Amino acid sequence: MRHLLSNDELDGLVQYMETRFGLEPAFLHQFSWEKSARDFWMMPKDLLQFSPQDSFIEKRGLRAFNGDKNPPKPTTVFIQRFGRMLNKNVIDLTTQQFQLILDKKLIPNLGREHDKGFVILKRHGFALGCGFVRGEDIESQIPVRMLHTISPKFL
Amino acid sequence: MAKPYLSPVYFSTYKDFIPDFDQFMQVQASLAPVFVKRNSLKCSEAEFNQFLDRHLKDGAFESVKKVNWVEDCFEINAPRAIVGGLWEHHIGLYYMLGASSFIPVKALDPKPNEVILDMCAAPGGKSFLIAEKMNDTGVLIANEPSNARRRILKSSLDRMGVTNTQCTNFYGEKIPDIGLFDKILLDGPCSGEGSLRGTWSRAFDYNRNDEYRNTLQRSQRKLLDRSTDLLKPGGRLVYSTCTYDPEENEMQVDGFLKRHSSMSLIEMNIDGPWEDGIHQFKETTFNPTIKLTKRIYPHRFNSWGFFFATFVKQ
Predict the structure, then answer these.
(1) Which DSSP letter does residue A138 get?
(2) Checking DSSP bridges between strand B139-143 and strand B115-118, what pairing results, if any?
(3) I want to staple A34 with a disulfide (CB 3.0 to 4.6 A). Which of A2, B137, B232, B302 is the partner?
(4) 8 Å CB contact of B85 and A43
(5) Nearest CA to A40 among A52, A23, A28?
């Protein structure tokens, strides 16, 4: 069962995304937001008003945040769609770093350059998904099923 | 791998109306090229050109050619597995689909903030094209009754990063009165002759099974009938198939026009090497406006074969 995200919950998301990733605060307010058992979903305002019976809906809008985590983690599909608007805590991966991710290894956070928490992993300027900084290592949060199907020959 | 084989007798009943039939048979027996469509929701034209250049340099692509008549579509000379395995594909910078699939969506002409229904939406290529044309605004209902195919649909829409879409699981002919739509795309179940380019004779043999054909045609008829109830007055319906069979194309349209006086065919003014719909098949002569329907043949437009008809509701 879904319900509308409260203003407080949305304000929390807006503040976190601005502080951590530099996302314009007005951006998330353009959308309607729903919360399912675990996740936060975004959609144009019109879509929310046009709703067949819930039992027939399998997916409405884009699953934007995983609400299980605190703070909520932006999903891979959200980052891949809106990554170009995220400009703080971003790592543009080298070929070697991308290969480490495909090999399911950690990326060294040399000199502890990045603060603890989520970072955006990009390649040639395009967002791939999230990473998580843990001290001297950065762990990929990109779904393994996606990594499995990527050709390592053309990175 | 065995050489693809096309049964020479399969299309013989179409010889009378497919122009340059020998050339058609030659092209139909060859594999269709690999096409990609840039996702304008995620990357600009300049960024996409850089992506194409990068993979021309690293050898993933042998050559790239812009496709005429459709926007942001490129024919890639590379194995399908390579194009589908690139990380840029997995993050949704592009979608792989036949170039002909664009044309019914062009006929639908989606606009921002409209309310649109894609009745048989899986695997999601046309839903993505519609959502993109709507600039990811308004409402798109992407309906698909098959669980397995709906999983692919949802995954496609996620990968392309679409927010304006709601996936539903109705049987198309039983979609309840959930609202009225500005536009409906009915890319119905069909025998898929146009998409079986360069494939095995066994698939064609199966396709010629009369019982299977009758089931498909019944289903097409019911879907068409239901679509009129869901369309706003003045709304647009596009019916498309990827088959050459007149019984699934012009004959369906002809019967539909007889059953629904409120629906009429319109001229689409979409430039391209399409042929007009045929006016007669076997013993049946169709409504004269059937020539407004269009056929896409692979020897005219090197992609899949397609048929489409655009209606407006009075």
Answers:
(1) E
(2) parallel
(3) A2
(4) no
(5) A28
Please state the ipTM of this predicted complex.
Answer: 0.94
Q: Kindly list the averaged pLDDT for each block of 10 residues, start to end, along chain B of length 314.
A: 55 90 90 95 96 96 95 94 95 96 97 97 97 97 94 96 95 91 96 80 65 92 97 98 95 97 93 95 93 96 96 96
Which of 3.40.50.720, 3.40.50.150, 3.40.50.1010, 3.90.70.10 would CATH assign to domain B99-313?
3.40.50.150
Q: How far is B146 from chain A (nearest CA, A)?
A: 12
What's the predicted TM-score (pTM) here?
Answer: 0.95
Which residues on chain B are in Cβ contact (under 8 Å) with A44? Answer: 136-139, 163-164
Q: Which residues of A touch B159 (CB under 8 A)?
A: 77, 80
C-alpha A77/C-alpha A64 separation (Å) is 7
CATH number corresponding to B28-96: 3.30.70.1170
B242 belongs to the catalytic site: yes
Tokens of A86: 């995220």
Residues of chain A neighbouring B139 (CB-CB closer than 8 A): 44, 46-47, 50
What fold characterizes domain A1-85? Nuclear Transport Factor 2; Chain: A, (3.10.450)
- Active-site option among B73, B120, B167, B242: B242
- Fold classification of A89-155 is Nuclear Transport Factor 2; Chain: A, (3.10.450)
| Shortest alpha-carbon distance between residue B41 and chain A (Å) | 7
Chain A to chain B, count of Cβ pairs less than 8 Å apart? Answer: 113
Q: What is the pLDDT of residue B305?
A: 94
Please state the domain extents for chain A.
Answer: 1-85, 89-155
The distance from CA B13 to its chain's CA centroid, rounded to whole angstroms, is 23
Residue of A2, A47, A155 to mutate, testing the B interface (most B Cβ within 10 Å of its Cβ)? A47
Domains A1-85 and A89-155 share a fold: yes
Q: What angle do CA A115, A121, A127 make, to 5 degrees?
A: 140
Secondary structure of residue B66 in the 3-state scheme: strand
Contact B167 A153 (CB under 8 A): no
What is the rounded CA–CA span in Å between residue A16 and residue A66? 14
CB contacts, 8 Å: B43 with chain A: 126
A46 and B165 within 8 Å at the Cβ level: the answer is no
